[in-house]
Structures are given as structure tokens and as C-alpha cells.
Write a structure and sequence with these properties.
Length: 403
């Protein structure tokens, strides 16, 4: 049971990129594990055996999904058939028939759940499997104290083993996650240090060029040439904007955080973007609970929120509404929501949010969200995005509340 787990984290996750191939390899490994479990049970008297096949079956099914689950069940049945056709065989088949559908139903929740829930689901399923085994055993062979005792041992032992291995698996997932995040952060750090140096150096000559262009722009110039100058100025401004975004990103995150009232800052954000939203035919509605305090830096907080609200405004080319709300939650967070009725995003687009240069706009920089995400994370905030294509998008930001 340990071998598949370690092969998964030391080799499969690193080397095998395709999801399908990973699943196949892992199913085979869990299959081997099941064969071992069934081949070396603990014999407790005649016809009474204890084994832990439930652990590889549950782990393989929950992490692998439908086909892994079917494969592993088929393997168990085939192997049981090979070792003899009898009452034990029916027992095995019946237990699987009654438990695999339940495992598959919970697999859907499992895939989405976080660690604590996953452990509960796995242990619950293990108990259920052993319990069904117990019931069918009684139906097929009648009740006896001796059998009941063995089955109860199986129940407890199965649950403990499942708990242990699911914890091991989940902990390794966490470690693996942290490791990749660290690698990404390291890469971004190098990029941002380099670019901030370059950006500064590029800005100065650009300012000079812009100044001279403005001087060239005389009233008696023919219209065509005036237009060229206008375009040049606009493009220079755009380049300057990109550099600004970049500099904001490259700035070292000095933690000059302080107590900050969220409502006040949100009102300011709404005010700053008022004329911008009017130009886009968009109305900003706020619903803010007062006296929500977090530990952050006002200026950076504003910048990150402005980027998000600006995107919300830009997502509605024909105008509409943006709602900005702020409420404290029961579990100690401040919940800020920015909701629009714009073009929305597909799942794929949402996954790419926050990465540099991801933009679907003609004149977008694809840096705004990256900066926002970076700032929000530096305040220990969490970001959730809900979006539906052509319906709208909601950004939910959670900050730890302070008193
Ligand atoms: P930019 O705004 O310069 O394109 P951002 O980093 O701010 O760059 O945003 C990246 C992309 O994310 C946008 O181009 C857009 O496709 C998508 N996006 C962000 N917010 C929204 C939103 N509220 N509705 C729809 N799409 C959005
Ligand atoms: Mg933007």
C-alpha cells in the first residue's frame, strides 16, 4: 500500500504529464497492491480471513475516478474467482456491488473537497464497506459470535488503516503543492527583479521622446501628420502604463501594513473609478458594512481593487452594473465581493488569471490581475472567482479580520 503512494509522488507526478497515463499507471499499482492484500490475509480459523484490500480499493477509486474503480473491482472479482468458486465468491461480489456505486457517488464530492473532508469521506466509505461485508456475511452464513468478533476487528482495522493512508497521501499532496509554488515564486522573483531595473531605464528616454513629440505638434500641421503624432503619443502612454504595472509588480513587498478600514477604502476606489465607469455606461453600486478592519496597506489595497473593478467595468462593453460589497463572515474573515454582468470567463480562462501577459483585450497588458493577486496574497487574503460565460463574473476576496 505504501509503494504506490511513494511511486506516485516520487516518479509519476514528476515524469508523467498526461492525466490519463497517470491514472492508468496508478490503477495498475493499486491493482498490484490489492493482489498482495488478498494473497496474504490474516487467517483467523476456518474460512475466516482478514485483509486490507479496502485501502487500495478506496484510495485507487477516490483518486482515480470511475474507470480505476471499475478496474479494481473487476480485478478483485477475477482474483477471487481464481482462488475458488464458492460462498466466499458470492460474498465478495455482493459487497462490491453494494459499495462501488456509493464510493462512486462520493468520489465526485471527494474530488472537490479539501483535506479534512477527504479524510472523513474515505474513512466513512471504509466503515460502510466493512459494515456491508458484515451484513452480507451474516445473511450468507448465519450469525455467530465468533464471526461477528472477526468482522468488528476488520471494521476497526480497516478504518484505521484507511485513515492512516489517506492522511499520508494528502500530506504528500500538500508538500508537493508547496514545492511547486516555491519554484514558481523563485522564477517570478528573478523576472521581477530584472524587469524593474530595465523598466526604469527605458522610461527616461521615453519621456524625452514624448516631450519632443509634443513640441512637434504645432497647430498648422496637416491633419495626417497630426494624427501620426497623436498615435505616437498614445502608444508611448500605453508603453508607460505597462511599465507602471510592471514596476508595481517588481517592487519588493515591504510590509508596512497597518490597521485599515475596508469600507472607507472601497468607497475611495468607487470614487476614483467614477468617471471611468460613466464613460463605459456602467454604474457602480456599493453595499458596505462599516467597521471592518484588516491588516493591510491602504495604497496597495486600493491598487489591487482598482485593477479588479476596472476589469469588471471593461467586461461590459454595452454598459451595466458593478456591485461592490463588503461583509464580515462568521468564521473571522472580511468578505469583499466585486460582481459584474459582463462577458464572463470559461473555466480555462479562469485558471489562467493572475499569470503575467494573459489578456484577451486588444490593448490589454495582462498584468493587472497578476499585480492584484500578488498584493492580496501579501495581505494573507484569498481570492475566489465565480464566472459564467456571457452571464458575469464575481471576484470574492477574503481577508482575515482584526478587531
Ligand atoms: P488586462 O485587463 O490588461 O487584459 P488583466 O490582468 O487585468 O489584464 O486581466 C486579464 C484578463 O482576465 C482580461 O483580459 C480578461 O480577459 C479577464 N478578466 C479579468 N476580469 C474579468 C471580468 N470581470 N470579466 C471577464 N473577464 C475578465
Ligand atoms: Mg485589467
Amino acid at each position: 500500500m505504501v509503494v504506490p503512494i511513494f511511486i506516485n509522488f516520487s516518479i509519476v507526478l514528476e515524469r508523467v504529464k498526461s492525466h490519463k497515463k497517470r491514472n492508468i499507471i496508478m490503477s495498475i499499482l493499486w491493482g498490484i497492491s490489492i493482489l498482495f492484500c488478498m494473497s496474504f490475509p490474516v487467517n483467523l480459523g476456518q474460512n475466516v480471513r482478514l485483509d486490507l484490500r479496502i485501502v487500495p480499493l478506496i484510495l485507487g477509486s477516490l483518486y482515480g475516478g470511475f474507470w480505476s474503480s471499475i478496474f479494481l473491482s473487476a480485478l478483485i472479482i477475477a482474483y477471487r474467482l481464481y482462488s475458488g468458486f464458492g460462498i466466499g465468491f458470492y460474498n465478495t461480489v455482493l459487497v462490491l456491488l453494494l459499495s462501488i456505486p456509493v464510493i462512486l457517488i462520493f468520489q465526485k464530492y471527494f474530488a472537490r473537497a479539501e483535506k479534512r473532508k477527504r479524510v472523513k469521506i474515505a474513512v466513512g466509505l471504509s466503515l460502510y464497506y466493512c459494515f456491508i461485508g458484515f451484513i452480507i456475511f451474516i445473511i450468507l452464513r448465519g450469525f455467530s459470535i465468533e464471526y461477528a468478533g472477526v468482522q468488528i476487528i476488520q471494521l476497526i482495522f480497516g478504518a484505521i488503516a484507511t485513515w492512516f493512508f489517506i492522511m499520508l497521501y494528502e500530506t504528500l499532496i500538500e508538500i508537493n503543492h508547496i514545492r511547486t509554488e516555491l519554484q514558481n515564486a523563485e522564477k517570478l522573483k528573478v523576472i521581477s527583479e530584472l524587469t524593474s531595473v530595465f523598466a526604469h531605464e527605458i522610461r527616461n528616454p521615453m519621456q524625452v521622446a514624448r516631450g519632443f513629440l509634443q513640441l512637434l505638434d504645432e497647430p498648422d500641421l496637416p491633419n495626417g501628420k497630426k494624427e501620426y503624432i497623436q498615435i505616437s503619443l498614445e502608444e508611448l502612454d500605453r508603453a508607460n502604463e505597462i511599465i507602471n504595472d510592471f514596476l508595481a509588480f517588481g517592487k519588493p513587498v515591504i510590509n508596512n501594513n497597518e490597521r485599515m478600514e475596508v469600507g472607507y477604502q472601497l468607497q475611495r476606489v468607487a470614487k476614483i473609478l467614477q468617471s471611468y465607469s460613466l464613460n463605459h455606461n456602467v454604474q457602480i453600486k456599493t453595499d458596505i458594512v462599516e467597521d471592518c478592519w484588516i491588516f493591510a496597506n491602504g495604497q496597495k489595497f486600493n491598487q489591487s481593487l482598482i485593477n479588479i473593478v476596472k476589469n469588471a467595468i471593461e467586461s461590459m462593453p454595452n454598459g451595466g452594473m458593478v456591485w461592490i460589497t463588503c461583509t464580515p463572515t462568521n468564521d473571522g474573515f472580511i468578505n469583499i465581493s466585486i460582481k459584474d454582468q459582463g462577458i464572463g470567463m470559461t473555466k480555462e480562462q479562469m485558471d489562467r488569471l493572475g499569470y503575467p501577459f494573459y489578456s484577451l483585450k486588444e490593448s490589454g497588458t495582462g498584468l493587472g490581475m497578476m499585480v492584484s493577486y500578488q498584493i492580496i496574497r501579501s495581505f494573507k487574503g484569498k481570492i475566489k472567482v465565480k464566472s459564467e460565460k456571457d452571464k458575469g463574473t464575481e471576484f470574492i476576496i477574503l481577508f482575515p479580520k482584526i478587531n
